[in-house]
Automatic annotation (TrEMBL):
This is ABC transporter ATP-binding protein. The keyword Nucleotide-binding applies. It comes from the Bacteria. SMART domains: AAA (SM00382). GO terms for cellular component: plasma membrane.
Amino acid sequence: MTLPAIEGRALSRTYGGFRALDGVDLKVARGEVRGIIGPNGAGKSTLMDVLTGRAATRGGTVLLGGRDISALAPRARQRAGLARSFQKTNVFLDLTVGEQIRLAGRCATLDNGEEVLVALGLAEIAHRPAADISYGDRRRLDLALALVGRPQVLLLDEPAAGLTVEESLAMADLLKDLARRWHVTVLLVEHDMEVVFGICDRITVLHLGRLLAEGTPAEIRSDPRVISAYLGTAA
Ligand SMILES: Nc1ncnc2c1ncn2[C@@H]1O[C@H](COP(=O)(O)OP(=O)(O)OP(=O)(O)O)[C@@H](O)[C@H]1O
């Protein structure tokens, strides 16, 4: 592998005496869509928190494009090219779709707001206040806001949560297409296995804070450890 877009080495996090993340290694190639899956409490959100700096790692290292960013605060990691979108939407309901994108563009190092509006199919509703658009469009706006500035690496927390099956699949296709076109590396925490197996190049499986398996969707789907720990019950 050439230099990974993002790499975690021996990432660990404890809460009190409890090990939420225990020595996890991760290497994600540039432009890859990586799924992060595992049962509830496996450590998926903690891994995202440690990568973005929201939670400190204990002894581990985070590298972005080969640069050690472990000592940087979340804002500085964001400026370095690491974006994150949360399950809860970050949208301001009083502003129009266009105003929010333009505002985000002004704050970003690269103002690609207009390009993002068009690419995410939001140009036609740019004049509407976010309070008046559908939940599905709001989720797309969330994704759009995370893509303003064209981050190197985008961490997404359940982008398909609350969407209908059709909306989830459309969101997944859009994400895959944008990752390819803009060479954005995506780490996706998602419980919708159709989305994960449909668009991820590789999948990391966490269980009890540890790395249980990593591989292509076909390898993960047939891994007996993954079936026993997660897929057998999740499917
Ligand atoms: N701030 C915190 N304080 C105490 N314990 C925490 C905290 N954050 C997470 N944990 C614990 O760490 C473990 C891993 O949690 P985490 O949220 O990372 O799991 P997850 O895989 O994202 O789960 P889910 O799929 O339910 O979102 C859980 O047992 C959780 O209770």
